[in-house]
Design a protein that fits this description.
Elements lengths: L2 H14 L7 H10 L8 H15 L13 H10 L1
C-alpha cells in the first residue's frame, strides 16, 4: 500500500464520520485531523497533501468560485 493509498483510506474514514450536510470547513477540519503519519514532513506529507487537495477541490472543475487568473485581471484593468 502506497502513502497515497493510506492517505485516501484515512480521509475516507474521516469523511464517513461527518453528516451528509457538513460544510467545507467541517470537511477540512475532519481531513486535517485524520493525518495518519506522525510528523508532517518528507514524502508521506507530500503524498497526503496531494490526496487532500483531491478531496478538497471545488466541484466546479477545480477553480474556486470568483477566481480570476492574472491574465483575466489584467484584461479587466485594460478595459476599464
Amino acid at each position: 500500500m502506497t502513502w497515497a493509498d493510506k492517505s485516501r483510506h484515512a480521509i475516507e474514514a474521516a469523511l464517513r464520520t461527518l453528516p451528509g450536510d457538513a460544510n467545507e470547513d467541517d470537511r477540512r477540519k475532519a481531513i486535517d485531523a485524520a493525518y495518519p503519519f506522525g510528523e508532517r514532513s518528507l514524502f508521506p506529507y507530500k503524498a497526503w497533501l496531494r490526496v487532500r487537495r483531491e478531496y478538497l477541490r471545488p466541484k466546479n472543475g477545480g477553480v474556486p468560485r470568483g477566481y480570476m487568473s492574472p491574465l483575466d485581471r489584467a484584461k479587466l484593468r485594460a478595459i476599464g
